[in-house]
Write a structure and sequence with these properties.
Layout lengths: L1 H15 L5 H27 L3 H6 L3 H20 L2
Length: 82
């Protein structure tokens, strides 16, 4: 998933010609993160019939931590790619 995040960020930054300024790249990453979370919560919560708190409680401590770290990486990846 990490490799896909790098490739997708690099492709999107080039395709949309996002300026290399901090605000533009972080804005793009945060927008992408917001869209990802909306899609994930909409699909996962509807399909599994859980609330957000139940969903968070059902996560394994190790995989949940990795998940949150990867969300942060996902948000800042447009800033990190050249």
């Amino acid at each position: 998933m990490f490799v896909v995040t790098i490739v997708a960020a690099r492709w999107t930054v080039r395709r949309l010609a996002v300026p290399s300024t901090l605000s533009a790249r972080l804005g793009m990453g945060c927008t992408a993160l917001g869209l990802l979370l909306v899609a994930e919560f909409t699909l996962v919560l509807c399909l599994r019939g859980l609330s957000v708190s139940e969903y968070r409680a059902s996560q394994d401590p190790v995989s949940g931590t990795v998940y949150y770290v990867m969300l942060g990486v996902f948000a800042i990846m447009p800033l990190l790619v050249v």
